[in-house]
Amino acid sequence: MFSEFKRRFSNRRQYIDLLWVFVKTSFKMRYQNSILGVFWVMAKPLLTFLLMFQIWSGFGKNSQVGIFPIYLLTGVVFFTYFQELVIYGQMSLLEKAHIILKVSFPRQIAVVSSLLNALINLFINLIVVFFIIFINRLALKPEGMLYFLFLVITLFIFCSGLAFFTSILTIRFRDLKNIFDLGLFLLFWSTPVFYTLENNPLFDQSAIDFINSIPFTHLLNQVRASFGLYYEIDPNFALTFFIVSVTLLVIGWRSFSVRVKKIAEYF
What does the entry give for GO biological process (predicted)? Predict the structure, then answer.
């Protein structure tokens, strides 16, 4: 009995080490031979923020948000996090096909390691967010920051479950990459990532109702609520989001465990 426990513990330790190797390798390869290196992580959301701030700051002044620059930056950074979770998870098996075909290991590690890169990128981008918060002297509450961390982790769980489906499907149907890219592009423009809905002459009530019907809109509102910028923290949303995410993860894991055994012929 003890030897069996020791063997399982040893295997788990090896899997954790392998996961860490995948994370480090993917992160280094992504910015290899790049002059700016890791600063490219911050470049896209920061440049998007600067451009959108110049365009939309006039509407932000007339809205009910707390501090528009922080409102805008939190939206851009959090959407970038979601976008990377979806894309990295979707492409995780294809990008590691040369390893998967040669080495035997739990394929879930390949998926999770890709998602962890998106999480690392988020924490790097949060440096910019908290710098802007410091400049604007926005007072943050501990419970708000804990709620923000909860949302970050729950979205990670949700996208992990999603990736266990999309990573398999993308191997067989390569067009899914373009479909997801288009979907994320449309989601960026159809949710209040960079604009506000209050006192905005560009939207009539039907457009506002449509935008508010998108679940990601509510997630963005809750992210901003955690910073004390917009809306109030909604425990019912948090609980529902967590239950849905865990359910998707469990179903996705089980489906992945069965289907991943048959993917080698499609690489």
Answer: lipopolysaccharide transport
Residue 15 lies in a domain: no
Structure tokens at 4: 């069996």
Confidence of residue 63 (pLDDT cuts 50, 70, 90): low
* Cα separations in angstroms, 15 against 11, 94, 138: 6, 20, 42
Per-residue pLDDT tens for 147-163? 999 999 999 999 999 99
> Is the torsion defined by CA of 148, 43, 200, 210 positive or negative?
negative
Structural domain for 248, as ranges: 32-266
pLDDT at residue 235 in the model: 92
Q: Name the domain count of the chain.
A: 1
Residue 7 lies in a domain: no
Q: What is the pTM of this model?
A: 0.88
User: What would the pLDDT profile of 93-112 be if each residue is shown by its tens digit?
Assistant: 998 888 887 778 888 999 99
137 lies in some domain? yes
